[in-house]
Amino acid sequence: CSKGCVDKDDTNPTIDKIAATDMILFATPVYWWGMSAQLKLVIDKCYCRGLQLKNKKVGTIVVGGSPVDSIQYELIDKQFDC
Cα–Cα distance between 43 and 50 in angstroms, integer? Predict the structure, then answer.
């Protein structure tokens, strides 16, 4: 698993690039109170590379039409905390 997901698809080279960086900046629009499915797929694929990503600096940009204090942003933030 440390070499990437056993599922051979287009996300493995992306995860390799993420593992090689010092900092990761995730950006997503809000869809139905959560991040986009495409970003969720990439994050799910990062799971098996967790030890290689453990000490990375991470930033997020989340864009939506609701007020900044809306619960949807808190929910997405909690997903990233996990």
Answer: 10
Burial class (CB in 10 A: 0-12, 13-18, 19+), 48: middle
79, two tokens: 């997903």
The pTM (predicted TM-score) of the whole model is: 0.74
Which CATH number covers residue 19?
A: 3.40.50.360
Over residues 30-67, the pLDDT tens digits come to 888 889 999 998 888 888 888 888 888 989 898 888 88
Task: Please report whether residue 5 resides in a domain.
Answer: no
- Tokens representing 76 are 């997405």
Q: Is 31 exposed, middle or buried (0-12, 13-18, 19+ CB in 10 A)?
A: middle
Residue 1 lies in a domain: no
Domain that holds residue 59: 11-81
